[in-house]
Amino acid sequence: GELFTPIPAGILVDIWGRKPCLIATAPMYIISWVLVLMTRSVPVLYAVRITQGLGMGIIFTVLPMYIAEISGPSIRGSLSTLFQGMWYFGILFEYSIGPYVTYDHYAYISASIPVIFLCTFIWMPESPYFLLMHNREEEALKSLAWLRAESKLTVKRELLIIKESVHEEMKNKVSWKDLWATPADRRALLIIQVIAVAKFLSGAEAILSYASQTFSATRGSCLTADNYTIIIGILILLTTFFTSGLVDTLGRRPLLLISCVGCCISEFLAGLYYYLDTQTSIYYNYSWLSFVSIASYCVFLSVGVGPLCSTI
Fold first, then answer.
1. What phi and psi values does residue 24 have, to the nearest 5 degrees?
2. Residue 56 in contact with residue 310, Cβ under 8 Å?
3. Domains in the chain: how many in total?
4. Which of 16, 18, 131, 240 has its CB 3.0 to 4.6 Å from that of 302, i.e. a possible disulfide?
5. Domain limits at 25?
């Protein structure tokens, strides 16, 4: 489902606004969890996953844009990284409750999250950028004053800067062809695609989705698979929040290089361990290597490739 919504969301976000597009995802998640409660049918569960994927595609397209537009320049990189951090917090939340509640209770708890989001986010202001794009200057001023927790008079200077930026963007409105119109555009597009491919083809989603099953296959472990999975979630979350403070100081490139090299080494060690574990008995007494290698992969992923994919 996530494959089909980013492009439509990218178009609608400039027509409907950032806030309505984000709010529209809440009913999609609520309905999907209601379906989980109502049936155990495999085709329906597939439909649920597709529906949630559609919502995820909208969120990952619109939310980074919304965060960048409502945040000040000095903290924009950090807040954009925290978006991924909160995503990992959600994963940790599900890791932590999954082993200890029933199927129905798990669905009820998960369904409560989009309900809370819908009831709270509806009071958030629209992006000042979007409002200025549609010549709603007074609303943009009110929105910016609320976001900065300052008076309208205080934020007028910043609003003028945003207005000039919006005017420049509207005057030089780009099309899809501009993504590869010049060598610089093609280089930027290539860099973004390579980073995205590195993130997803490195196995991030598979490792996070099947961590419990992976650790349950490890022999001689002193902890349960669920314990290991929760620890992984904690490590990812802490690393992401730590990285958010370094994005605007160290820069994106060093963090990405460290992340890629670390992920490569960690996955090599994990693959080597499981190969030797299944083909020989050499590493039978070193089951900790499985956890350490996968945990280090998740940490290095959270240092750069994971959170920075949406901030470059």
1. -65, -20
2. no
3. 2
4. 240
5. 1-124
pLDDT at site 95: 87
Cβ neighbours of residue 288 closer than 8 Å, sequence gap 6 or more: 221
Signed CA dihedral, 163, 167, 168, 169: sign only:
positive
Tokens of 235: 């490590």
Global confidence as pTM: 0.78
Nearest to 125 by CA among 66, 59, 184: 66
Amino acid in position 63? L
Q: Which residues lie closer than 8 Å to 302 by C-beta, 6 or more apart?
A: 84, 88, 235, 236, 237, 239, 240, 243
Q: CA 126, CA 136: separation in Å to the nearest integer?
A: 11
Residue 145 in domain = no
Q: Which residue has the tokens 């290095």?
A: 300
Reported as half-sphere exposure (CB side, CA atoms, 13 A), residue 301 has a value of 28
pLDDT, one tens digit per residue, over 97-155 is 988 899 899 999 999 999 999 999 999 999 999 998 988 888 988 998 998 888 888 88
* Cα 77 to chain centroid, rounded: 14
Q: Write the Ramachandran bin of 174: left for phi over 0, alpha for psi from -120 to 50, otherwise beta.
A: beta
State whether 217 and 110 are in the same domain.
Answer: no
Q: CA 116: distance to chain centroid?
A: 19
- If residue 62 lies in a helix (H) or strand (E), which one and from where to where? helix 42-70
Asked if 4 and 57 touch (Cβ cutoff 8 Å), the reply is yes
Amino acid code (one letter) for 133: M
Q: What letter represents residue 100's amino acid?
A: Y
- Are 2 and 95 members of one domain? yes
Q: What SS3 class is residue 261?
A: helix
Domain harbouring 97, CATH code: 1.20.1250.20
**Are 118 and 181 within one domain?**
no
Check: CB of residue 80 under 8 Å from CB of residue 311: yes
Longest Cα–Cα distance in the chain: 72
- Of 92, 107, 124, the last residue of a domain is 124
